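Dear colleagues,

For the upcoming journal club I promised to circulate an example of a predicted protein-ligand complex. I picked one with adenosine-5'-triphosphate because it came up in last month's discussion. The inputs are reproduced below in full, followed by the predicted structure.
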Amino acid sequence: MSRMDDIVSLCRRRGFIFQSSEIYGGINGFWDYGPLGAELKRNLKNAWWNDIVHRELVGPDGKPIDMVGVDCTIIMNPKTWVASGHVGGFNDPMVDCRESKERYRADHLVALGSTAPDARLYVYVDGDEEQMAKAEKSLTKYERRDALDPAVHVRRSFVVLTAEDRARAIGPHAKETGTLTEPRMFNLMFETHCGAVRDENSKAYLRPETAQGIFANFWNIVDTSRVKVPFGIAQVGKAFRNEVTPRNFTFRSREFEQMEIEFFIKPETANEWYAFWRDYRFNWWQSIGLTSSNLQLREHDRDELAHYAKEGAGTSDIEYKFPFTDPGFGELEGIAHRADFDLKAHATHCGKGDKMRYFDQEKNERYFPHVIEPSAGADRGTLALLCEAYTPDESRASKVYMKFHPRMAPTKAGIFPLVNKDGMPEVAERLWRDLRKTWTIDMDEKQSIGKRYARMDEAGTPYCFTIDGESLTTNTVTVRHRDTQAQERIAIDSVRGWLAERIG
Ligand code: ATP
């Protein structure tokens, strides 16, 4: 089993993540969080909200940052998505296989084989080691001879293949040649209808990003909140994309959660604010436990930039090396200077145009503020925390432990009476009742102490307190540290302060 298979299996076994509607065979691209996963994801979202909206952050101008939160609807007036460009342009190229009935993203497919017109092309999904190995093995002797010559043996993206090339291509799950269709553009927005009549007029979309709720409310917030540019609006919420090929566990899902900030600035300050948010966000992911070299910050090349960002201060991605992207990286969060693209587009589409420009009292001037957008995924973030935490250790009964940062750990501490008698359960229960007023605490009285530690190791619980015979006479407990397995004895009365110091 690969490392990723091990992580997925632990997530299922310990109740971090399940397939949505599993009893009916699941549904592709949708995932549920179980008791431990729900706590983990909530810890991530709460930390984000707390650090972005509630905590005092000082900007590059040396002043405290103004940030407010919103909670907007998933279904918005469909004109929103015309203005944002999603109705016209939120498309992925899609390829169907007529034989296997599988569907693929054309830009994720690689065709392997000779350029000779009679040779077969073997197509695999980029990054899928198994499929690639199968494609390489499928080369005939004659094709393999060609394969040794880099001039004729090539790996090409499926999107550049001609009709003749496609006719000699074999799909990842097919046996025959020529069963893959020409790539067709496919809009990623989920459609629905509002009201009883299902026609063009009642058509609406599930939001593909949370950002547009923020932009559409910009004017409401300026009017009601006494905020002045520079300031930010933050939102956490669901987004939906009918991804052509959902894959890699929760990494590419059809329903997911985003944590987005739109930070409105004076146009001439774009460079400094862009650099500020890029660095702050990178450090933030490290502060919640993504400390290894698996986390990287990647500045986009100019030719990768979105149309609105070409002239801007820049775009960068915070990326994580997941087991399924290794040696490559996958995007956790994008930070982009979106200029005044969105506010201008909404002003134009709602028919008010330049009248919607923001009035800057200090400058005595009207303009559309520019925007720096740090846009992160809560599910990809949770997945990165799970992958980072997963630590095999043959010396333990559980063979593996989850090394979560204490702030992210779903359960902060376990409390165990050594035996279920002699007054120990009563002492344990008193401690549990006190601590659970503040934290998620697991009380476990069953099985051997070794098995209880093993359960907590798999859940990633950083500390366990055991009440033993000595506890009754000396009013102390032993603390066991998850990562080192070291134990120490502390006074029962000091447990609350001891935990607060380490968890906050
Ligand atoms: P990708 O190129 O991987 O499809 P994207 O560039 O389209 O991602 P954005 O539109 O920038 O992504 O969305 C912001 C964030 O939302 C991403 O960094 C990611 O964390 C999250 N996200 C986007 N699409 C998905 C998805 N299908 N499943 C889970 N999270 C997603």
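Two points we might discuss: The CA atoms of residues 11 and 181 lie 36 Å apart. The pocket of adenosine-5'-triphosphate is lined by residues 209, 241, 243, 252-253, 256, 258, 331-334, 375-377, 379-380 (CB under 6 Å).

See you all on Thursday,
B. R.
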